[in-house]
Amino acid sequence: MVTKYSEELYKGSISGFPVREYKVKVIPLDKVLFGETKFRIMKIDIEGAECIALKGMPHIMGELEIIVFELDRGNLETFGFSPGDLINLIRNAGLNYFYVLEAKSYIQVSVSELEKIGNSLQLGHSINVAATRFPL
Asked: Is the pTM of this model over 0.85?
């Protein structure tokens, strides 16, 4: 569980917004939704907290055929993660094919290419990515 994040990095990536600390109760998504329905596709964009959410839903991740996510180095680092951490969580769930999504198309990239792209993103910049269990 994340209890502290980098206020300086957050302020550097989203200037003008105050940083506040809140305590919230967190329940793993697997405990709330798993078994209720079968998940095939998921879109997740939670401003850098993706790794925290994915760790709380290993069963759901095991069912997914496609996950679409935003890769944003600055937001991930705010929560103490790197692009490689997010990519590895997704790969460990069996989603091994990655595609950078563009306006009207997509480009398949290797894991090493995606990690390189993710690590080179400037603060405030992101890319949309799809990961699939089978090639498109």
From this structure: no
